[in-house]
Automatic annotation (TrEMBL):
Keywords: Carbohydrate metabolism, Cellulose degradation, Glycosidase, Hydrolase, Polysaccharide degradation. It catalyses: Hydrolysis of terminal, non-reducing beta-D-glucosyl residues with release of beta-D-glucose. This is Beta-glucosidase. PANTHER family: GLYCOSYL HYDROLASE, LP05116P.
């Protein structure tokens, strides 16, 4: 069905008349399939990350992070953008929480900036940094929004990077200390804690390919960083449990790997699945690294960074697996193809986009990939509750008469929520959905060039404008369904 009819069901036709209809070539149109109800108690919310929205990078004793350093390195971030101001959430958090309240969100996933709490990554605690998150948590609870804390969303204190960062085993121990500090201050009001956000990105974009901070490009460092991130998760989980944390989990960026189903293509897909998905899923949920990944990585590393007892620490039970899904990986066997640096050991494999509509990031829009992923996790790693902790899309939005008619984003979200519902019907233990992102923000190496928010931010004035997708999402939350 056309989007206009979907909006009319929610009384939203006044948002833009015919301008709200979707172009005919969109293959991911909304479907007229009646109201789809989600399970009772399903959690609806939104997510952000500290460096992407807070700004105030020099306020109240915050130390520098690797992203402060990286964004100031010429040529690393679009147009030389930095997170110095971002959305100024540090000073405008009350306004942002009011938006969440007005949308009826149940939960808000935000990250704590480690450099605000320990400017050098270890040692003395900065009380003013903790004070900010204290105020934020209280504001959320006062608005009826449940806080969900992520301890690490890529902003490692620069002082730790100067000592080797995640390639140094000591960083994992410092991370556990920081987790205990954060819980001691906020644990009386925060129930759910996630340790890491997307350790694959931290390890392989940051240390193996140089695309993200700290900008190093050595496959051996990428594998070492991946292990120490996982070890940091395990040690932090133990510290949080010892402090009385109720729910502890981790968030991974996962993707089904799509191929043309020839024997060679299936083999290529298995390699990439190992390098993106199983390299984290297996240690966390099975207590072991996948043998094929270990063998493939031996051309870069001897795995000597793995010590006795590490996998037992890493594989301790978790209460929640966060899933960040945007698009599948599409691969094909192609002898002679150079390896993709973000997947060390992927020589002979071509990476391409699926034949589908694309977001402004060039990512294929394939909601069915989310269904496949959730069902695969339920089948291969049963027993762990799942939550979609990020899902969303960047599109080239425009403001017209104080409105943002982001029909493509609205369609994207509708399609993926339907895909999530299909997975639940198929038996997936999916507990909630957090849209990425609440606000337009600093999009890492893309700077302010890409907008993922359901709320538009004018970076010059810091004015917030809820987009049509935000208003629609608020109705989904209210109805607990589509």
């Amino acid at each position: 069905m056309m989007l206009q009819r979907a909006l009319s069901r929610y009384g939203l036709t006044e948002w833009g008349g015919e301008d709200m209809t979707m172009s005919a070539e969109k293959s991911y149109e909304l479907q007229d399939s009646g109201v789809l109800r989600f399970p009772e108690g399903f959690v609806w919310g939104a997510a952000t990350a500290a460096y992407q929205i807070e700004g105030a990078t020099r306020d109240d004793g915050r130390g520098p992070s690797i992203w402060d350093t990286f964004s100031r390195t010429p040529g690393k971030v679009h147009a030389g953008h930095t997170g110095d101001v971002a959305c100024d959430h540090y000073h405008r958090y009350r306004e942002d929480v009011a938006i969440m309240r007005d949308l009826g969100l149940h939960a808000y996933r935000f990250s704590i900036a480690w450099p605000r709490i320990q400017p050098d990554g270890s040692g003395p605690v900065n009380p003013r940094g903790l004070d900010f998150y204290d105020r934020l948590v209280d504001e959320l609870l006062g608005a009826g929004v449940t806080p969900v804390v992520t301890l690490y969303h890529w902003d490692l204190p620069q002082a730790l990077e100067d000592r080797g960062g995640w390639t140094n085993r000591d960083t994992a121990r410092h991370f556990a200390d920081y987790a205990a500090i954060a819980h001691a201050r906020l644990g009386d009001r925060v129930e759910t804690w996630t340790t890491l956000n997307e350790p694959w990105c931290s390890a392989f974009l940051g240390y193996a390919s140089g695309i993200h901070a700290p900008g190093l490009a050595d496959p051996a460092l990428g594998f070492a960083a991946a292990h120490h991130l996982l070890l940091g998760h395990g040690l932090a989980t133990a510290a949080l449990r010892a402090s009385g944390a109720e729910k502890v989990g981790i968030t991974l960026n996962l993707a089904p790997v799509v191929n043309d189903d020839t024997a060679a293509d299936r083999a290529a897909a298995e390699i990439v699945d190992g390098l993106q998905n199983r390299i984290f899923l297996d240690p966390l949920l099975r207590g072991e690294y996948p043998a094929d990944v270990v063998e493939r990585a031996r051309r870069f590393t001897d795995w000597s960074f793995v010590q006795d007892g590490d996998l037992e620490v890493i594989g301790a039970p978790i209460d929640l697996l966060g899933i960040n899904y945007y698009t599948p990986q599409t691969v094909a066997a192609r002898p002679g193809e150079a390896g993709n640096p973000v997947f060390p050991g992927s020589e002979g494999i071509a990476f391409g986009g699926a034949d589908a509509p694309k977001t402004a990031m060039g990512w294929a829009v394939q909601p069915s990939g989310l269904t496949d992923l959730l069902l695969r996790l339920s089948r291969d790693y049963p027993g762990t509750p799942l939550m979609i902790t990020e899902n969303g899309a960047a599109f080239d939005d425009t403001v017209e008469d104080d409105r943002v008619h982001d029909t493509d984003r609205l369609s994207y979200l509708d399609g993926h929520l339907r895909a999530a519902h299909a997975a639940i019907e198929g038996g997936a233990d999916l507990r909630g959905y957090l849209v990425w992102s609440l606000l337009d923000n600093f999009e890492w190496a893309e700077g302010y060039n890409k907008r993922f928010g359901v709320v538009h931010v004018d970076y010059g004035t810091q004015r917030r404008i809820p987009k049509d997708s935000a208003r629609w999402y608020g109705e989904v939350v209210r109805r607990n369904g589509l």
